[in-house]
Amino acid sequence: MIHLGVNIDHVATVRQARRDIEPDPVAAAVMCELAGAHGITIHLRSDRRHIQDRDLHLLRKVVKTKLNLEMAATDEMVEIALEVKPDQVTLVPEKREELTTEGGLDVVSHEKQVAAAVSRLKEGGIPVSLFVEADHEQIEMSKRVGGDAVELHTGSYANAKTDAAQSGELQRLIGSGRQAVAAGLRVHAGHGLTYRNIIPIKQIPKLHEVNIGHNIVARAVLVGLDRAVREMLELLK
Ligand code: PXP
Questions:
Q1: 191 is catalytic
Q2: What are the angstrom distances between the C-alpha of 104 and each of 71, 191, 234?
């Protein structure tokens, strides 16, 4: 079964809109786990626009499945990860002004910085996934810098405007999945995945984990988090 990591950043976004104490992402994490989610994903951004350090520390204590910390490959974040010890780190690019993570991490151009971060995290016993585009060189480099997994960026697939474009993007993801498996990397996928576009994604070979945030939280606002998580799990079966 493909594992579902629910990204709860946008529960914190609603809280931060008022700089208040509710809704609490820690409560959301518990509800996701009770609904059957296989993991909880959060992105601690350098500007702390949604998830706060307090959330990370509490989630480390509360999450019983798998806590996946998305973060930039910076010294500040590596120090935090080594202290808190999430079950997995996913390295992502981060520009302060962007609304969300816009492209994959360019492991080829930032080989030294990424390799150094991966090596420190792995010395600390934390498995590392690299969020990359479905691109041959990026995947090859992800292996070379010591990554355990790649999270294939599904944004272009999600944003494709025609069936033909979507099918082309899907083929690219399938090819990259094959390449990653052959290189001995675990295969994850994420970004822009929805209840409407998730089914074809299951064709990615040996897909182990998907990380889905915005669309699950969006549905949860209307139908509740328990139902929103269960409905996504049903589609992943
Ligand atoms: N995976 C990664 C690496 C991400 O950066 C994000 C967005 O924070 C997601 C998955 C979730 O994307 P979405 O909110 O579009 O489902």
A1: yes
A2: 12, 10, 28
